[in-house]
Amino acid sequence: MAQGRRVERVASLIRREVSELLINGIxxxxxxxxxxxxxxxxxxxxxxxxxxxxxxxxxxxxxxxxMAGLNAASGFLRGELARRLQMxxxxxxxxxxxxxxxxxTSVLNLLGQLENERESRGESALEMED
Length: 130
What we know:
This protein is α+β, with helices and mostly antiparallel strands. Helix content is 56%, strand content 18%.
């Protein structure tokens, strides 16, 4: 049980430090082309691997550039994490795009379209529930 809490604590610390580094530490201009949100940090039980899930606001090619910049900076981030968290061996950092927000937005758009179609036919959502 203590192992699980330790992994969660390390994931939380990594999230905080990487957030700070995304703002002030990474000089690669590609990283600053879109708005990046860290949605989740997953650390393996042995603390050797770390997946950082990010959501990137921007156009498709912009997102690709941001991901390329993040991947290029992963070695730098690993070194900074080792230094800042005083870890003898920091985990290998891998970035992955979290598509959850995109999927949620598309579902909301579809629901909005359905509502508009119902309204144009003169139906209301309240009538559908009865």
